[in-house]
Design brief:
Zincin-like, about 35% helix, disordered N terminus, alpha/beta, 4-stranded mixed β-sheet, globular, 11 strands
């Protein structure tokens, strides 16, 4: 029997709401032409609840499906790591070392990683309090760009290949990527990991300038640029998701 596609005259909402045990959960709605069944997931990186469904499934059916999984949604959300906002007093890692955010002054000034009078590592921010979070984010991104630029230049020099462009963003699905045009892209969140992790990711993506695959030849290049890459790669698999809870 042929199933006709739904005709939707009005714009569809971007979210559904599921209520379980008195708590409301927003569920993002995603239609995919290639989807063959309804799927539900909770992103460990962002905490977003996403319902993906085929074009032919109507909204009422999607709502019933989501509501029938209310307990599952609640359980998954409860297991997510607590999010840490970039606010005064919060502790965030910088190059693998916990730093407390210190609102140093309300006068506009540079954000710096330094030590408090008691010797504890801090990220000192000088700005109006409403701007602290943005200043910390900008600082971490700038530090990531600096470290990645240095690491990429070093590994590219050893390989004899030069990338055409390097960008730093808040990527969610990948820590780094290399396009066929030689453009390298990295997550700024790598600056929160131990330095070996960022250095390995730089070597990994630079290796793609020679091999756009994950063949044995590719891994041989990675091993030449970064011997012992297994350890930082394992760190990312174990702890990488935790970096997304900051900010």
């Amino acid at each position: 029997m042929r199933v006709a596609l739904l005709r939707r005259s009005a714009p569809e909402p971007s979210h559904l709401t599921v209520v379980h045990a008195g708590t409301s959960y927003p569920v993002a709605l995603r239609r995919r032409a290639a989807a063959r069944r309804i799927t539900l997931r909770v992103s460990s990186a962002t905490g977003e609840i996403v319902l993906t469904l085929p074009e032919r499934i109507d909204l009422a059916a999607a709502q019933r499906f989501a509501e029938s999984h209310g307990a599952w949604i609640a359980a998954r959300v409860a297991k997510l790591p607590e999010r840490v906002a970039f606010l005064p007093g919060a502790v965030v890692p910088l190059r693998g070392v916990p730093h407390r955010i210190l609102h140093w002054s309300t006068a506009s000034g540079a954000t710096v990683a330094t030590a408090a009078p008691d010797g504890a590592p801090v990220i000192a921010v000088s700005c109006g309090e409403p701007h602290v979070a943005r200043r910390v984010r900008d600082f971490l991104e700038a530090e990531a760009r600096r470290d990645l630029t240095e690491a990429v230049a070093r590994h590219a020099g050893a390989l004899g290949r030069a990338p055409r462009r390097l960008t730093v963003r808040d990527t969610r699905s990948r820590w780094g990527s290399c396009s066929a045009a030689g453009h390298l892209n990295f997550s700024w969140r790598l600056i929160m990991a131990p330095p070996s992790v960022l250095d390995y990711l730089a070597a990994h993506e630079v290796s793609h300038l020679a091999e756009m695959n994950h063949s044995d030849r590719f891994w041989a290049i990675v091993a030449r640029l970064y011997p012992g890459y297994d350890e930082p790669e394992a760190w990312l698999k174990r702890h990488g998701t935790e970096l997304h809870r900051y900010g």
